[in-house]
Amino acid sequence: MSEPHELRVDLGSRSYTIWIGPDLLARAGELVEAPKAETIALVTDASVAGLHGERARNGLATTGLRVEQFTLEPGESSKSTVTLESMWRWLAAVGMHRTDVVAALGGGVVGDAAGFAAATYHRGVPLVQMPTTLLGQIDSAIGGKTAIDLPEGKNLVGAFHQPRAVVCDTTTLQTLPDHEFATGMAEAIKHALIAPGTLADRLTAQSDVITARDPETLATLVVDAAAVKVRIVQEDETEQADRAFLNYGHTLAHALEALAGYAGPTHGEAVAIGMMFAANLATELGYADRVGVHRSLLEAYDLPTTGAGFEYEDVARTWVRDKKYEAGMRFVLLEDLGRPVLVRDIQESALRNAYEAVR
Q1: Of 162, 226, 320, 310, which Cα lies nearest the Cα of 19?
Q2: Phi and psi for 182 in degrees, rounded to 5?
Q3: Is residue 183 part of a domain?
Q4: Diameter of the chain by CA atoms?
Q5: Cα dihedral sign, 143-133-250-114
Q6: Is the entire prediction scored with pTM above 0.85?
Q7: pLDDT-flagged residues of the chain (< 70)
Q8: Active site residues
Q9: Residues 235 and 351 in one domain
Q10: How far is CA 28 from CA 62, 127, 165, in A?
Q11: Do residues 324 and 342 lie in contact, with contact meaning Cβ atoms separated by under 8 Å?
């Protein structure tokens, strides 16, 4: 049995290991550090439970701990106050104590919702992230962001709550629907564009083997893309400065998702359009013109480059609720590839022109 790859997130007393490799759900018990726990509360959704729930339960049960399962409905609608209250009350019913563990098995929705429940129940109980999507393994399960949505916007209520471990079983990526895999690739492309190095070139050169989901290539992609997130989180854990760069493309994306009532474009599709908007805006402001690079990368993975659809005025009213708002809107742009910057006080005409280019 090959040993998993380890990435260490160095945050002092909140440090933890990200484990990456095939068939890790069966070994989850040995990778979860919970010396004082009696119960593991496994939170998943109905789709993931059918695919991976038994392997995860059996893997966690090797610890000798009691494993209880809470199953969400799949989809963004589960990131709600209603679902959160249901989880809190379930945690109380199964007798969770402050030293017990919440394990989040699934994609970004499960990780966000279960993570926020863990952050708030008993004022915080240990959390283990077990992401089964590409998005989760390279991005959302790393760094401690947890949240639920409000009708007014995405991820408006949440908390930073670092996990005790992240277990990335890359075998689960083979079961992803194509649209979920594409969502993860949008985030991988984002990491490649904001970070120095060769990841963007490799995503271009390896698009065929990545979309064919070659296991070794995927495992390497997860390690390399996750390493970008780890580096930024270590430098700026609570998004006071550089961590905001991880929101590249997300200001418009979150607005589009909210305007569609979370029933329109997938997160990856919205982020792809958001990055194209950011590339056009950077060009409008005189930064390096990398619109063509963005378009080529996104099209290689069947991600959209236009199609925002909504009126600019509606979008502008929505994105002012973005978490990067700070006495005015701030946008993550690229001075050039691998050189992100936060820009504020942008003229309305430039914003409108960049939006119309992707509408």
Answers
A1: 226
A2: -65, -35
A3: no
A4: 62
A5: negative
A6: yes
A7: 1, 322-328
A8: 123, 145, 187, 229, 239, 243, 247, 250, 254, 267
A9: yes
A10: 8, 13, 10
A11: yes
